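note to self: dont lose this again. the chain is below, predicted strucutre after it. 234 aa total, dont forget to put it in the shared folder this time
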Amino acid sequence: MKALIVDDEPLARARIQRLLAGISQYTFIEQASNGQEALAQLKKQPPDIVFLDVDMPQMNGLAVAQQLNQLPVPPAVVFVTAHPEHALDALQLSAAGYLVKPVTESDLLKVTEQLGRITRAHIQKQKPQTLCYRIAGELKSIELDTVIYAAAEDKYTRIVFDNGNALIEQSLKQLEQLYPSYFLRIHRKTLVNKSRIATVKKCQDSSHKVTLIDCDEELEISRREFKTVKQALS
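---
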């Protein structure tokens, strides 16, 4: 496997490189000190797996992972972080796993074993992207393709999907940033799944509403967002 280590701390990169060098599956190991450098290296020598630090200046690991997910054949991503609470963010970005600093040999071996003999051909057959959320402390996930829309509700966000709905802690802004290819903002309080838009209709009072596939509701498009919606659908 070809690996890329991305971390702004030289000692952290060196530690992971030293540990990977002792694992026979890794035949090629490169390093990058920031997100921009990592994206540039990916174009030259696409890796099978990226060990990605979460806390980096300018472009953090979550932002890098978002861009990786847009690639036709994205590499597997393993987040490396000093903060275990980032595990939920890792799952939302379809990460293959995460490691908590300081990385140990046993943890690295465990992640490698979980990945198995991963190749870029295998990655191409990855599972559908999912949205993770917690209900009463229990972690759940749904496929993003099944989400119809998301609406702000007090301090939470209600997501409406094919077989029900749920309140989640992520804000509309976070969903918009994490899944730009899925969601389109139609109102300051509403995002819709782009693939679910059926029609945009003009009402008698000159306002506009959107109708959605497999949804009986008609959702209001704000005047501020109407131009953006129109451009997105043209």
